[in-house]
Specification:
Tetracycline Repressor, domain 2; 0% strand
Length: 297
């Protein structure tokens, strides 16, 4: 039982829920649910399974590649603490990535866009984990690209929509770049320059969401959600700027990750899908609960 719990801890369950919200936002953007007589739940379920496998597999390999460093900085994690062996974690991570790719491959017959995106996400996650994580520019960009591609994976439920809406994937790229920039000081404390940079990146994301909501003419609900989004990410970040200690930076990172759900709900509202926005918001309490049980970072 202890080993099973350890394997589960490696997947960061609370974060996986945020990845599901990416998919639901992408499906909303694609317009898949607009024709109530023609959609099927099968591709929705497959895409949810795909993102869960891809995200979980990616974060498992984060700990696999960081095993030596974690033995010094985070000895309580499953691999350095001996709860899960590095070999078992590697097999677990590969299994999850393969499940994610296979699920994406079965979303459509005759279209390869979903499986191509799933492979791209897996590759980006491994490249980030192995080589880019500690690079000042490549690290945030690669991690952000994983999230941007994940949004596109949701949009790929309607393959033609990927061509129309691919620029929207740049928003999560910028947002995750902000979170990754903040997280650099999580262990030893950070410098205020990185945190101020994150504020600027957050502001860019918020301005983009507001602008797009107004353009789409569904701004009322979207603005409400964006306000909640701001209220979740900014207070802990301001505290971290005032006192850039490791624990406060960790709280700012945790808030940023969980707030992805509200950002995705805002996308759904901006595209006029109020009920789906509500469903996405309901993922937030579940993610917060899991965050109390399992580490987010």
């Amino acid at each position: 039982m202890r080993r099973i719990t350890g394997l589960l801890r490696l997947t960061r369950p609370a974060n996986v829920i945020t990845a599901v919200s990416d998919i639901l936002a992408g499906i909303t953007i694609s317009g898949y649910f607009l024709n109530a007589n023609e959609y099927s739940w099968k591709p929705v379920i497959l895409l949810v399974i795909s993102t869960m496998g891809l995200y979980a597999g990616g974060v498992v390999f984060n700990d696999v590649f960081d095993a030596k460093l974690d033995a010094i900085e985070r000895p309580e994690r499953p691999i350095p603490s001996g709860v899960v062996s590095k070999t078992a974690a590697t097999v677990w991570g590969l299994l999850l990535l393969v499940i994610g790719i296979i699920a994406a491959a079965n979303v459509h017959e005759g279209y390869t866009v979903s499986v191509v995106l799933s492979v791209a996400i897996a590759v980006c996650a491994l490249v980030y984990d192995k080589w880019c994580k500690h690079h000042f520019i490549a690290g945030p960009f690669t991690m952000g690209l994983c999230r941007g591609l994940n949004l596109l994976l949701g949009i790929s439920i309607m393959p033609a929509a990927v061509h129309s809406f691919w620029p929207l994937c740049l928003v999560p790229v910028v947002y995750i770049a902000a979170i990754t920039t903040v997280s650099r000081g999580e262990v030893h404390g950070g410098n205020k320059a990185n945190l101020y940079l994150a504020v600027c990146l957050y502001a860019l994301v918020i301005a983009t969401l507001l602008t797009f909501s107004i353009i789409q003419q569904y701004w009322r609900t979207a603005v409400f959600l964006i306000a909640g989004f701001c209220g979740m990410i900014m207070p802990p970040l301001m505290k971290a700027i005032k006192q850039p200690s490791g624990p406060l930076i960790g709280k700012a990172v945790k808030a940023g990750v969980l707030a992805l759900i509200l950002m995705n709900a805002a996308w759904a509202a901006a595209f006029g899908q109020f009920y789906l926005a509500c469903i996405i918001v309901l993922l937030l309490p579940l993610s917060i609960l899991l965050a109390r049980l399992f580490a987010v970072t």
